[in-house]
Every structure is written in C-alpha cells, then in structure tokens.
Amino acid sequence: MKPDTGRAGIIVAGGRSTRFGGGDKATARVDGVPMIRRVAEALTPAVDDLVVNCRRDQRSTLETVLSDCDVRFAEDPILDRGPVAGLRTGLRATDATYAVAVACDMPFLPTAFLDSLFAAARSQTGAVPEVDGRVQPLPAVLHVRAGTTACTDALVYRDGRLCDVVDLLDPVVVPERTVAAFTTPRAFRNINTRAELHGLGN
C-alpha cells in the first residue's frame, strides 16, 4: 500500500440476491462483463488495496471471475446480517486510512467520481454523494476506523441500515451540482432484478 494515499476499495458482495430470481447477481453480465468485475475495474485505479466482502460459498466463483484482478477476500464470519455487517468485515480487513465502499451491483461508477469522493473526504470522517435531492449511502468514502465504529454502532444501537451508518458517521455531503460534474445519474443505478438487467439491453 502506498503511504501517501492509504486508500482501499471495499466491494460489498455478500448478499443472497433474493430479488434476482436465482444465481448470484454479482456475476451476472453487463455488456458481457460480470458486474463485480466492472466494479473492481472502476475501483482499481483509485485505490491501493481492493477487498471483496463475500460469503464463504461465493468465494470460489468470485475468485474465478476476478482471477486476474489484484483483490483480497474478506468472508463474513456470521452470515446474512446485511450490508452493514459486510461493510464492517471489509473495513476490518484493510490497514488503509480511507476506504470507498461500493455495492457489487453498481456497474456504472466511473473512477473519476470515486477519486472526487476521496478528495472530499480528506481530513473528514467520510464523504457521500447527494443524488436527486437525497443523500446516497453508497458509494461512500469512509475513514476506516470511524467507519468501522459507525457500522458497529448501527448494528448494536440502530436498525443496522446503511443510512444509519451515514447518520452516525456524519460525513461530508457532496452536493448534487458537484456530483454532476463527475458523473451521470446512470452511475447510481444498481441492478436488483433480472428485469432491470434485461432493461439494460443485455
């Protein structure tokens, strides 16, 4: 890891894809490329350490899909506790100062926008974007130690949702006009169902 940046990428991929109608959506293809690979390729230029959070039974498949990517895997110690627990597992697996957290089903995020979130988070607890008048919990850049604590508190004292983590962390909110300078609304589209996947023209 480069000492001058200390940036990690955390891909949260441990969900059951229950709305997807069979199969792991992380490996579903968008324009011929598995979604999680598209996410990894967007993150790689922006980070020094790339961690994929997953279930143990996913790992071999994800290793195959990401075989030529420089990634590490952080398996959930307890299954099915939701994305906040998965995010905490990923944060605990890195020694970076800041980490950008991205869901495995967000295949359109541009690297330049992730870089801009890191810049906004500098000397802060983190940074999150505002889109359509609402604060988005992902993608988010988090100070790793502060983010880990916020995840724990969200699980113990709140409802264990990503928005609880944002509330507890109190990060910088990047205003919509700044977000629009680096990306388009398509970047925040996540794929939850096969209908949504087919709607992309796959």
Number of strands: 10
Task: Work out the helicity level.
Answer: 25-40%
> Mind describing the biggest β-sheet?
8 strands, mixed
Q: Which structural class do the helices and strands define?
A: alpha/beta
Query: Spans of 5+ residues with little confidence (pLDDT < 50)?
Result: none
At the first level of CATH, what is the class? Answer: Alpha Beta
Q: How many separate structural domains?
A: 1
**What is the radius of gyration computed over CA atoms, rounded to a whole number of angstroms?**
16 Å
CATH superfamily: Spore Coat Polysaccharide Biosynthesis Protein SpsA, Chain A
Query: How do the SSEs run, as a string of H and E?
Result: EEEHEHEHEHEEEHHEHH
Function: Transfers a GMP moiety from GTP to Mo-molybdopterin (Mo-MPT) cofactor (Moco or molybdenum cofactor) to form Mo-molybdopterin guanine dinucleotide (Mo-MGD) cofactor.
GO molecular function: GTP binding; metal ion binding; molybdenum cofactor guanylyltransferase activity
Cofactor: Mg(2+)
Subcellular location: Cytoplasm
